[in-house]
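Onboarding guide, step 5: your first structure request.
Type a short instruction followed by the sequence, for example:

Predict the 3D structure of this protein.
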Amino acid sequence: MNESMMQSPDGVAIRIDHLTKRYGEFTAVDGMTLEVPKGRLFGFLGPNGAGKSTTIGCLTGLLDPTSGFVELLGERFSSDSIDLKRRIGVMPEGLALFDQLYAHEFLAFNGRMYGLEESVIRQRVAELIGALDLTAASRKRLADYSTGMRKKVAFAAAIIHRPEILFLDEPFESIDPAGVAMLKDWLRRFVSDGRTVFMTTHVLETVERLCDDVAIIKGGQLAWRGELDCLGKGGTLECDGEQFSTLEALFLHLVGERYNHLDWL
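The system replies with structure tokens like these:
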């Protein structure tokens, strides 16, 4: 573990303090306070429009909060925190690929952006393209990649510099089962080295099997936060004085809507 990973003496990788983000009269994130320890795979859940992507935008410098603040690795973070940005990896919702580049060109660009040496870039680009089964597509530009292949390239770009915190927005969507299994294994190894993953997804079964901790938000506010370790040991999750045997049951209790039946369906 490198020295830079020891700069947060309390062991907190991400600290969110009364974070608020407004767009005019609309409040996307409303006074959220949350801490994520180092070395954990953290699931950040909520229904559509709950404020997940906006929160990640504030945590990664893509958006500036209206009020409140964010600390990463013990340091105050903002869109101007260049040094801290080099210590995190981001796979955003929109992927943000340069479509006219080839995969190896895009990954090399990201490596240079993070200050890697050219010899390291060449080695890691070759290893990532091989491991993610993208070699056969090396003569195609990114614009011609399938959605799943684009996801793999975005993931590779987020990890090429071995970040200390990895932010992932819907990382497994559209990726084939073998690719998903490999990425899950990589993420487990990532956190076993004391690094931290902050991930959003709508696939609750994946979160239940993969993540250590979970936060559920609704309407831009924190609705529940807890550990998932007990579920693998036959335990339950507690909320509002009730016990839930699955994450899905807890999620639906907190944010599930009551839908009208369609008599004609």
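Each response can be followed by summary notes, for example: Confidence is low (pLDDT under 50) at residues 1-8.
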